[in-house]
Amino acid sequence: MSIPRPTYVFALKFVLFAVSAGLVLISLEDTYTNAILISLAALVCGHIYQIFVYPFYFSPLRHLPEPQGGKFPWAHAAILGKVANGEAYKHWVNSIPNDGLIRFRVLLNQERILLSSPAAVREVLVTKCYDFDKDFQSNSLVREILGNGLLLASGEEHKRQKKIMQPAFQYRHIKDLYPVFWSKALESVDCIYSEGCKLPGSKTPQFASDWTARVSLDIIGLAGMGHDFNSIQDPGNELFKTHKILVKERPFFRWMALGFYVPIYWFFKLPIPLASKKQTRDAAKVLRDVARDLIDEKNKDGQFGSDILSVAMKSGGFTNDELVNQMMTFLAAGHETTAVALTWLVYHLGKNLDIQRKLCRELQTVIPRNGKSFTKVERLSRLVERNVALPDYNKEFDPLELDRLPYLNAVVNEILRFEPAVPKIIRVAQNDVEICGTMIPKGTTVMMSVNGMNTNKDLWGDDSMEFKPERWLNEHGEASNSGGAVSNYANMTFIHGPRGCIGKDFARSEILCVVAAWYRRYTIALVNADDEPKRTGYLSTRPADGLEVNFFPVTEPGTNSNC
Description:
Helices cover 52% and strands 8% of the residues. With 563 residues, the protein is α+β, with helices and mostly antiparallel strands. Strands 1-2-8-5-3 form a five-stranded mixed beta sheet. It has a three-stranded antiparallel beta sheet with strand order 4-12-9. Helix 13 crosses helix 15 and helix 16 crosses helix 21.
């Protein structure tokens, strides 16, 4: 790759200046001044080499393809700053010809690597996963708020924590939590109705993001900590408002994002009174106190349930402070990603009403209107539906049945593929390490585009950019676990390898229950169906306006159903 001519000329002038200055300084008699000036000249030359010479002439990454643009001083960071979080990486992965690695540059020509193939992803996340670690700056800043829980721990400490937490997240234990997921999902259905479910023609919308946040937090609270935040019934309560402060993206998070380009961690260690930083830390302290009180109460009573906290406590592997860190991680990361996924699902089903109606019809075949047991009227109505599979009416509905509904599972799988809540993954090489035959120098930041891999046409086919649940069904309408992808590493939503998301079964099961409860009872229509929502967020990516919708009750089979 040739260096842009203006940059080359600029660098050459500086080098000549430094060399000339050095020759002049040699003739000076003042040894002390001479030493200082020579040191300064060497420092200038070193920076010129690092910025203008090394990336283009000596870097082992210089032969890799890179995006167009990249003018000094911001290089490709200028592009990243103009589009929504993760969108530039998604575009590069799908548009730049490459063999698995793409180079891009940020401020002052610092090199970054973007992975774009399953083979490259496998090396970083699986076979050489401990040669890479999370970004120190962003990790350190988040750790000050959440503590050193499983999400942020590294090396042997991460291995230890994961081993202790693993039993709580195994699917056989998640199955025990389905009644909690389902009961909270049904509670939200009733509250949506009482707070303003509308008849056709109504002009009073609700915000989907508000409801997804409320139901997700209550589920996380009960299933994760054995504590009901009661945000579905009372969104004005102090704990819900405090949690909103914790996860709300503020100027503080913008500074964190800037750390990708500039070493600014030291700035946050200074006693500078940033209001957003103080609010976030105060909110974290309140939630830490709640978690600590719950731990003390469980220890005192000796009553342990099936929630995640109880299972972790029974293991005996964590101190109380470590348990608090795990709960903070769960509250922040687990809640936000699930709420965002649900919000995007509401959007895409609102844009694709045929998919929404098909989902509703499947749900009506097995789920009673009240979500618990079938009434006599419902039983009679299904007798006239010749093509409707008849469930066992003599028992209450078991939410584990949801795992066996192919179209529901296809819809959930597709939203997790198409709209990953966290669009990118960052790792930093801890040693000189080879990826796909290219030597990656120690300290190089390596990016993985989750939404780029999840929509890569080479991995998913020509329809990869479409929201299409049918890709998760075979020709007989049965579940297809691969979604038609050519590699397991094509789907990056929950990452892979030892640092893969431990809570993926929890999150997926929670989403499954909420989607089933909502779309069994409601048609959810977008208020502005023709508008593409603006994307916002520095950590996760969500609709900026909260997504205005109307909830319309569905009618039942045998009664001219509107499904």
